[in-house]
Amino acid sequence: MTPTELNPRLADLRVFLLRVAGRNVSRDLAEDLVQETLIRVVDTAGRIPAEALRPWSLGILRNVMRLEYRGRMRRSEVALVNDETNEAIDLPVEPGQETTADAKSALALIARLAPERRRLVEDVVILGLQLDEAACKYGLPLGTVKSQLNRTLAALREALDGKPLPATWMAKT
After folding, report:
1. What is the CA radius of gyration of the chain?
2. What is the mean pLDDT of residues 101-114?
C-alpha cells in the first residue's frame, strides 16, 4: 500500500483504533497509543497489503499497548510525602541500590549465556544495535532475531526472579 492509498483511510482507521484502545485504557492514554500506532502504520505503509490494513494496524496497536504496559510495570515509584500536609507528592523516584543490584545480576546472567545468545543480547540491548542490523550481522531473518531476543530476555527476567536459565542456553565451561 502506498502512502497515497493510505492517506484517505487514516481518519476511519483512527476512529476504529480509538474504539478498540478505549475498551482497555483511559481516553487520554488511548489517544497516545493510537497516535503512536498511526505513526508506525505510516512508516510501514509500503509493507502493508491494502486488504490487511485493519488487522495489521490492530497488531501494531496491540504491540504498542504491550510496550506501554511493560514500561509501566518496570517503573518503580516511591511516593514522597509533604512534611506540612502529609499528602503524597507525585514524584517518581528510582531506588538506586535496587537498580544497581538488578543490573549487576542481569550482567552476570548475560555473561553465563552461550556465546551466540550473549552476543545478540549485548549487541541489541546493551550496545543499541537495531534489530534489522543484527539480522544482517548474524545472517538471520528478522523474525528469528526478534524471537530469539524476546525468548532470551524473558528467560533472563525469570532468572532474575530465581528460575534457572535453560541448560542449553548456558555457555560451555
Report:
1. 21
2. 80
CA–CA distance, 113 with 68 (Å, rounded to integer)? 28
Name residues whose C-beta falls within 8 Å of residue 106's C-beta, 6 or more positions apart in sequence: 156, 160
pLDDT tens, residue by residue, 111-141: 888 888 888 988 888 888 899 999 999 899 9
For the chain, which residues make up each domain, given as ranges?
3-74, 95-169
Burial class for 118, CB neighbours closer than 10 Å (0-12, 13-18, 19+): middle
∠ CA 71-133-146 to the nearest 5 degrees? 50
95-169: CATH, from 1.10.4080.10, 1.20.120.530, 2.40.128.10, 1.10.10.10: 1.10.10.10
What's phi and psi for 119, nearest 5 deg?
-60, -40
